From TrEMBL:
InterPro entries: DUF899_thioredox, Thioredoxin-like_sf. This is Putative dithiol-disulfide oxidoreductase (DUF899 family). Pfam families: DUF899. It comes from the Bacteria. It comes from Streptosporangium album. The lineage of its organism: Bacteria, Bacillati, Actinomycetota, Actinomycetes, Streptosporangiales.
Amino acid sequence: MTLPQVVSRDEWLAARLKLLAQEKEAMRAQDAVTAQRRELPRVRMDKEYVFEGSAGKARLIDLFEGRRQLLVYHFMWNNSAARARGDQALDEGCPSCSFTIDHVGHLEHLHASDTTFVLVSRAPLAEIERFQARMGWTIPWYSSAGSDFNYDFHVTNDESVAPVEFNYKDKATLERSPKTSFVINGDGQAISVFVRDEDTVFHTYTTYGRGTEFMMSTYQFLDLTPMRRPRYVNQWPYRDTYNGGAGHSHHAHHC
């Protein structure tokens, strides 16, 4: 890539101050969007979902672990791209989701804010636990296999089960873009927010696709640099495959 031009310190300062004004404007705009997000209405969750975790069966309210708020990261698993290429190694989670979750550190700060963070995948628990052990993550991870959870939140699409929808777009809209056509059949990723009022659970927010990019601090750091982001999110490898690591080698496929 071409590096930025070389200028005097005074010229640099003038350009930096111009950018600073734009950064502050963007931050104020983001603050306004955040305020609107907090004010979104809530939807009562009347359907019962049964998940499976390390401690056994769990309901949606159990995922809160007694806290007031719940963040669910919908982690892609049995994706259509893998099936299309005849890949039988479906005991791996999505590489893009893995890149995302690699950025999640200790959860104590969230817990101290009365908020629980969990992962949910439409995969057998045994497969989830093998992959979780490989990646070294300790985040609570639940299987939604056998429930309607993924379909109801439009992170799994199967036209025989429910109408196709992803990121609030119908099948016809998704088919028109190569960036979204892959989610017409199979899993997608998202993050959903729930709040609990005593024993009643409410859904307040779900964001898909680049809406989860805020979790990826690698991008936030690289966005500060002249060399930019070297890869799209679907091009990042599993971290244990760098330099010939032991992980599987089909990490670069879109999922």
